[in-house]
User: Which sequence fits this backbone?
């Protein structure tokens, strides 16, 4: 069972719908017992980092996620959910969960912000099990104004160029983060989602 | 490099897709969820649903269409029509829409845009702007294109971005349904004053029109309805044509 973390932000059902289509059992929940029993956690999210962190804290989910992840439970962060895995975000100067060392930065004002649309992912870690059957420069759907800049470049699985290259997919042990929305990226996105789940279940 | 997006638009009334010419004379174009699935399979980059009548009765039908679409399609979609308060937007997002278009409701009460952007994030607030040439400027039209607000479309676009909208769906009423090409002049003018993506809408009639709106109009996405609904060309044909003309698209 996968627990999709419900922390009072919108569009949690899109990841649920995608997992349903892949016939992967999942529940949307903020219940500690359910989260504790789940094999995999998914932290989805659109919206502002400060709101996201506040909501997590209010529900006591920051501490719960920390203990689960420290105990080795797999966690997938999507979009804002990926950004919240870092130490700190420039968006509202907020401290995040700190599972991955590094910060979240804003795109320069010279670009159209948010980046909205389909952009290519350049494969960095060619050996990554996450990228089985995912060709280099496949298009994924992005909607964001901020991006993750991890300290340890070895966690970067793939990058995308928007004004500059940024980390669009990262992996650190039991943690995976994707800046794009695999659940909204057509067939290739579903393939990636399946790969991530397969990796977590190994 | 970010690709240019091709977006089929599904204008709906009473849960059915319809298509008009310059916002009147509507023809039935079929079931929205079936069409949405078809466009997803054909390679559409996104979808837009507009509830063009947007009455209270229609609200439940619309929410049902959104819920069913969310389960079927694998790409993002925007829903607009009748958004007057934050709660309307919340309902539509909860039903499964990725973005919400705000039109008349935002003109009548501009704070609606900032309230929605603060609560849900700029990335899901789309300004739906219907513009019509009046004298030597473009005016913002509301109530399904029936009411001229007298407000300059350029000024309104700038203000709306300051209020927090993350994207503009710009429809030219003058070119809508005429199939003589998008309104390049209008799109270029709006694109030059804001730094959010612009979806150009109204007037697609042939393949060249898409190339022109991207290359000359500086649009980030192009929206079309009848061209696709009535099978005059497919999304694949448009994208192949654009690729052959060195415009980056997702294939």
Assistant:
């Amino acid at each position: 069972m996968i627990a999709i973390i419900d922390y009072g932000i919108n569009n949690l059902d899109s990841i649920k719908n995608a997992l349903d289509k892949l016939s992967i059992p999942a529940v949307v929940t903020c219940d500690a017992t359910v989260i504790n029993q789940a094999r995999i956690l998914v932290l989805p999210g659109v919206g502002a980092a400060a709101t996201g962190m506040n909501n997590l804290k209010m529900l006591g989910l920051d501490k719960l996620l920390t203990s689960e992840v420290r105990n080795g439970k797999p966690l997938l962060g999507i979009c804002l959910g990926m950004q919240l895995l870092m130490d700190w975000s420039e968006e509202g100067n907020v401290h995040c969960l700190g599972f991955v060392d590094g910060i979240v930065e804003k795109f320069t004002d010279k670009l159209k912000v948010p980046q909205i649309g389909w952009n290519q992912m350049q494969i960095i870690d060619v050996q990554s099990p996450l990228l089985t059957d995912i060709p280099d420069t496949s298009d994924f759907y992005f909607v964001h104004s901020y991006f993750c800049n991890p300290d340890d470049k070895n966690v970067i699985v793939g990058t995308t160029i928007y004004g500059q290259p940024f980390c669009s997919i990262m992996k650190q042990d039991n943690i995976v983060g994707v800046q794009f929305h695999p659940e909204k990226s057509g067939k290739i996105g579903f393939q990636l989602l399946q790969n991530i789940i397969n990796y977590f279940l190994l | 490099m970010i690709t240019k997006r091709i977006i089929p638009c599904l204008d709906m009334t009473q849960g059915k897709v319809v298509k008009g010419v310059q916002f009147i004379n509507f023809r039935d174009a079929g079931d929205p969820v079936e069409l949405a699935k078809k466009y997803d399979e054909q390679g559409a980059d996104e979808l837009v649903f507009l509830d063009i009548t947007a009455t209270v009765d229609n609200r439940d039908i619309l929410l049902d269409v959104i819920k069913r679409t969310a389960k079927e399609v694998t790409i993002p979609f925007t829903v607009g029509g009748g958004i007057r308060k934050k709660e309307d937007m919340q309902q539509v997002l909860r039903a499964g829409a990725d973005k919400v278009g705000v039109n008349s409701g935002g003109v009548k009460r501009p704070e609606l845009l900032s309230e929605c952007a603060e609560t849900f994030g700029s990335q899901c607030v789309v300004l739906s702007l219907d513009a019509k040439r009046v004298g030597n400027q473009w005016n913002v039209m509301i109530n399904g294109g029936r009411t001229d607000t007298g407000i300059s479309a350029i000024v309104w676009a700038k203000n709306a971005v300051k209020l927090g909208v993350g994207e503009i769906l710009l429809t030219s009423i003058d070119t809508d349904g005429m199939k003589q090409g998008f309104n390049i002049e209008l799109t270029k003018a709006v694109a030059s004053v804001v730094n959010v993506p612009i979806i150009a809408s109204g007037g697609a009639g042939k393949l060249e029109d898409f190339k022109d709106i991207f290359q000359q109009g500086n649009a980030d996405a192009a929206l079309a309805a009848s061209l696709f609904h009535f099978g005059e060309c497919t999304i694949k044909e448009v994208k192949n044509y654009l690729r052959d003309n060195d415009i980056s698209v997702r294939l």
